[in-house]
């Protein structure tokens, strides 16, 4: 290791993935924007997944992703998890009768913030690497927030959603004169 070169902190860094935007103010702006406006960003997705509006939501920034061996693989920039109870008809295994049972449900949204997607292949490998550490279910949604345009369809085919950051667009409901509306 050269003098002044930092040692890799996560497994994905040891594999050669380096994110030059990670420590920039631009990255922080997009993370804070997503954190502050998650309800608006997820509104349509929540309706599609039939997540009730009265759910409990937990938001975590820089959430560690652990491998099966306990090593930190990397970090999701933002994770939003919803929890709710749902009553469904079920059958009692003892006598076969119908009964209403309460089931706890959850749905998680994993955000990776990339101000600039420099390589589609590297971005795809990183998301796939991260999601292999999670149980991939219908209740997990992977989202990239970026300023890079034109990637929505390609990533959608890979079950990854793209939200394009509006940036300086003052006509966007979250932005006024280039700054976030609180």
Keywords:
182 residues, alpha/beta, five-stranded mixed beta sheet, two-stranded antiparallel sheet, 7 strands
Description:
With 182 residues, this protein is of the alpha/beta class. Helix content is 25%, strand content 35%. It has five helices and seven strands, in the order H-H-H-E-E-E-H-E-H-E-E-E. The protein has helices at residues 11-14, 25-36, 38-48, 120-132, 152-156, and strands at 56-66, 72-91, 98-114, 140-146, 160-164, 175-176, 179-180. The longest helix is centred in the last third of the chain and has 13 residues, at 120-132.
The helicity comes to: 10-25%
Task: Report mean pLDDT, rounded to a whole number.
Answer: 76
How many beta strands in the DSSP annotation? 7
Largest sheet: 5 strands, mixed
Share in β-strands = 35-45%
Shape: elongated
Task: Compute the number of helices.
Answer: 5
Topology:
Blueprint: H1 11-14, H2 25-36, H3 38-48, E1 56-66, E2 72-91, E3 98-114, H4 120-132, E4 140-146, H5 152-156, E5 160-164, E6 175-176, E7 179-180
Parallel strand pairs: 3-4, 4-5
Antiparallel strand pairs: 1-2, 2-3, 6-7
In summary, what is this structure?
The chain is of the alpha/beta class and 182 residues long.
């Amino acid at each position: 290791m050269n003098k002044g070169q930092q040692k890799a902190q996560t497994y994905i860094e040891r594999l050669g993935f380096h994110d030059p935007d990670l420590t920039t103010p631009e990255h922080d702006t997009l993370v804070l924007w997503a954190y502050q406006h998650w309800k608006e960003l997820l509104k349509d997705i929540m309706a599609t997944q039939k997540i009730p509006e009265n759910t409990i939501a937990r938001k975590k920034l820089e959430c560690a992703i652990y491998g099966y061996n306990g090593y930190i693989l990397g970090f999701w920039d933002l994770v939003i998890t919803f929890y709710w109870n749902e009553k469904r008809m079920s059958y009692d295994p003892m006598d076969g009768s119908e009964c209403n049972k309460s089931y706890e449900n959850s749905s998680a949204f994993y955000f990776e913030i990339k101000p600039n997607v420099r390589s589609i292949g590297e971005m795809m490998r990183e998301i796939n690497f991260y999601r292999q550490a999670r149980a991939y279910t219908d209740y997990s949604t992977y989202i990239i927030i970026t300023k890079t345009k034109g990637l929505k369809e390609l990533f959608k085919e890979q079950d990854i959603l793209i939200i394009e950051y509006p940036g300086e667009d003052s006509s966007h409901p979250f932005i006024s004169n280039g700054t976030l509306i609180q």
